[in-house]
Structures are given as C-alpha cells and as structure tokens.
Design a protein that fits this description.
With about 190 residues, the protein is mainly β. The protein has one domain: Jelly Rolls. It is about 10% helix and about 40% strand. The chain is built from 3 helices and 15 strands. Strands 3-4-5-13-8-11 form a 6-stranded antiparallel beta sheet, with no helix packed on it. The protein has a 3-stranded antiparallel beta sheet with strand order 10-9-12, with no helix packed on it. Strand 1 and strand 2 form a beta hairpin. It starts with a helix and ends in a 5-residue tail after the last strand. Bound molecules: D-sorbitol-6-phosphate and zinc ion. The site of zinc ion (ZN) has 6 residues, from strand 13.
C-alpha cells in the first residue's frame, strides 16, 4: 500500500502547486514560436518575461494501471489577439486519453485530431469536465481575466511528446474577436 501522503495530496490551485510534488514553470520565453503575432511576442518579451503557467505533477505510481495528475494555473493575458496558452502536446503513448476538470477562471481547450487535423475549441470551466481522447493534441488557453486553474488526469504511462507541436504548431489558433474567443485556421492569419 502507498503511504498516506501518496494516497492523499493537498493542492493549491491558486498557485498551481501540490505539497511535495515537482512544479514546472513556463515563462513567455519558453513559448517562442507558439504565438502568431511574432512582433507582439518580441515586444512583450522585451518588456519582461512573465510567468505564463505553472503545473504540478502528482505521480504516485508508475505501473500500467496507474494514474497521474497535474494541477495547472494559467495566467490571464494576450500576445496580440491570442490568449496566454500552454505549449500543448500529444501523449507519447498516443492512445492515452486525459480528463480535465476546470477549477476556477475561464478557459478554452484546443483539441486537434492527429490523423485528420480536425480541430475543436471546447470550454474549460469550473465544475465541467473535458474529455481529451487519445491521438489528440491538446493546448489550454486562459480566455478570462483571472488565473485559470484546472486538473488533468492521465494514465501514468501516457508520457508527453512536445516535439510534434514544437515543429509544426497547431493547425488552428484561438484569438479574441469582439471580446470573445474564436477558432481560426492558422493559415488564414498568415
Ligand atoms: C498533462 C496535462 C497537463 C499539462 C499542462 C501544461 O498530460 O495535459 O497537466 O501538462 O496543462 O501543458 P503542457 O502542454 O505545457 O504540458
Ligand atoms: Zn496531456
């Protein structure tokens, strides 16, 4: 049996931290190449290198049936018309699905099917769950004005593949138009 502290973890969604769990921080400089408006990106970077998000990973076991989860805190803000976002990834084991639960704030998830490129923008809100199927790249955006906090639960064996997205980015972007998030083809903005 796991120890009590492995069975029960106290998380602080306000900061995206979990007692005893390693947290990863991503700053604006870590998201080079993610945003469409490169001039706005360079200008924002020149003014500082703000924290965009923090995610704490809780990994109690590594067996094939085990689960891991991440507690995420994504700051509000925009680069040009694009909302602050996570890097986004596929799971290394492509068939691994994930369940996201919104805790606070307002966000969207961008989902992209690997085989067809079909893209969806789905809301990530408190008291709602978002099912991310396998074979689907996923990225989170904060579309509100306060920090977005959420939990993502995934198989321990899922792994993370950032390479494919770093190379070609998502096919679509989520941008603010007249105060609301809309999904557009990246090519339509070029
Ligand atoms: C892990 C899960 C989340 C993300 C987090 C940060 O499978 O999807 O915990 O790690 O939202 O995003 P990213 O793309 O930088 O890992
Ligand atoms: Zn994931």
């Amino acid at each position: 049996m796991l120890k009590l502290e492995e069975l029960v973890s106290g998380f602080d969604p306000a900061t995206g931290t979990v007692a005893g769990a390693p947290a990863t921080e991503r700053r604006l400089s870590d998201l080079r190449g993610c945003f469409v408006d490169t001039a706005a990106y360079e200008a924002a970077l020149a003014a500082g290198d703000p924290l965009l998000y923090r995610v704490a990973a809780v990994e109690p076991g590594r067996g094939s049936g085990d689960l891991h989860y991440g507690v995420g805190m994504l700051m509000p803000g925009r680069i040009g018309d694009e909302y602050y976002m996570t890097k986004g990834h596929f799971h290394a084991r492509r068939e691994a699905a994930e369940l996201y639960f919104g805790l606070s704030g307002e966000g969207m998830m961008l989902l992209e099917d690997e085989a067809t490129g079909e893209s969806r923008m789905v809301p990530l809100l408190p008291n709602q769950a978002v099912y991310v199927p396998g074979f689907t790249a996923h990225r989170t955006m904060n579309t509100g004005s306060v920090p977005l906090t959420y939990i993502g639960v995934y198989p321990a064996t899922a792994g993370h593949d950032y390479g494919a997205i770093a190379k070609r980015n998502f096919r679509c972007v989520v941008v603010e138009r007249h105060g609301s998030p809309v999904l557009l083809e990246r090519n339509s903005l070029a």
